Amino acid sequence: MNIPFSKVPLAGNEQAYINEVLASGWLTTSSKAMNFEKQFAQFVGARFACAVNSCTSALHLAVEAIGISKDDKVLVPSLTFTASAEVLRYIGAHPVFTDVEYDTRLISPEILKNAIFRNPHVRAIILVHYGGLAPVMTTPEREGILDICRFRGIRVIEDAAHAFPTKYDNQYIGSFGDATCFSFYANKTITTGEGGMLVTNDEEIYNRVKIMRLHGINRDIWSRFTDKSSSWEYDVVAPGFKYNMPDINAAVGLAQLEKASYFRSERQRCAEFYLRELGDIPCLDLPVFNGSMEDHSWHLFPLVLKPESPVTRNDFISQMANKGVGTSVHYKPLHRMTYYKETYSLDEHAFPNTEKIWKGTVSIPIYPGLDQQELTYICQTIKEILCGPADVKYT
Ligand SMILES: Cc1ncc(COP(=O)(O)O)c(C=O)c1O
């Protein structure tokens, strides 16, 4: 067996749409990117969408557009990819790292309240929908994360790199916070190779992001080169960035979007198998979720090996690799990364749940097309490593 950690399903209209772009002779941002934006916004139920070349760019644009500036403080969970925090440093703002809940690996309303109590001047939060699960966004008692932030005037940027398509309370992630940023990196739930999307219901944020994603120019390239009625002329109204999504990538994105619901249900099928097969291994904690299986994008299936596990996480990964099963780790927390640790003098003891997760966490394969034989083999291998051959049960 050779089962990679991730695999891109590309059997739809990807090739056909790429060919259309090549035939058009226009390889950078134009009709495919605009169509992708329109379809994506419709899918998640948001007013505006801006296609960009990564989720990192989307996060940078979001932070800039809501007016975060030098020396501002922004809450970020430590259990995330560096992009969630690094975009703050681009503009001289500072991440204030928080712990997460052990079970869900998300910021909870209690953790948020505590963090605000200790840092009353935070201006925003970068809310990470870890693994594809949304945290408690809002409750009838107004005690959800959005409620707490709105009450205190804290802006909410959602890092939804893992969360397409994810729902909270029957509504897709994409229209809760001030801006929501998705990733279409090669291993994400839908991909454009490299790419991202910023969605928002706020027209001011949208207008700023549209300008800043392309050099701060006041008109998009497509209209500059194709609008026969007006001249070549354009103005630069701000020192912007070069973050637009080329049409070749958008072509792949459009084809992937057509299959997004099917892909999600395929990942759910894998998750259901794992939950059933691995649920009674005493030294293993499985992902916990509130809400229904359908609300979760199931981008990741992260296990935690408890301290009583007979092997360390790193030995587990080596043994899985020796048996032909790819795994990954999400994440070595940012408070352990040299740059953040040294810049902010971070202490592991301030992140007890994140530490507990980090010491045992390992993510196993979960993607469309992972078949029953492969799923069975993965579970059998895990049981052999953690329980020994005698305890292996097959269903
Ligand atoms: C939580 C999180 N945020 C942001 C990113 C950055 O995404 P991109 O590679 O599209 O910039 C990633 C990428 O893996 C991620 O996992």
List keywords for this structure.
disordered C terminus, globular, alpha/beta, 395 residues, seven-stranded mixed β-sheet, 2 domains, Aspartate Aminotransferase, domain 1, Aspartate Aminotransferase, domain 2, 38% helix, three-stranded antiparallel β-sheet, binds pyridoxal-5'-phosphate, single chain
How would you explain this protein's 3D organization?
This protein is an alpha/beta fold and 395 residues long. It contains 14 helices and twelve strands. The strands form three sheets. The chain has a seven-stranded mixed sheet, with helices on both faces. A three-stranded antiparallel sheet has the order 10-11-12. Helix 3 (55-65) crosses helix 4 (83-90). The longest helix has 19 residues, at 260-278. It is globular and about 75 Å long. Residues 391-395 have low confidence and may be disordered.
Chart the SSEs and their pairings.
Blueprint: H1 14-24, H2 31-44, E1 48-52, H3 55-65, E2 73-77, H4 83-90, E3 94-98, H5 109-118, E4 124-128, H6 145-152, E5 155-159, E6 167-168, E7 171-172, E8 179-183, E9 196-200, H7 203-212, H8 221-226, H9 247-258, H10 260-278, E10 284-285, E11 302-305, H11 313-322, H12 338-344, H13 352-360, E12 361-363, H14 372-387
Parallel strand pairs: 2-3, 2-4, 4-5, 5-8
Antiparallel strand pairs: 1-9, 6-7, 8-9, 10-11, 11-12
Bound molecules: pyridoxal-5'-phosphate.
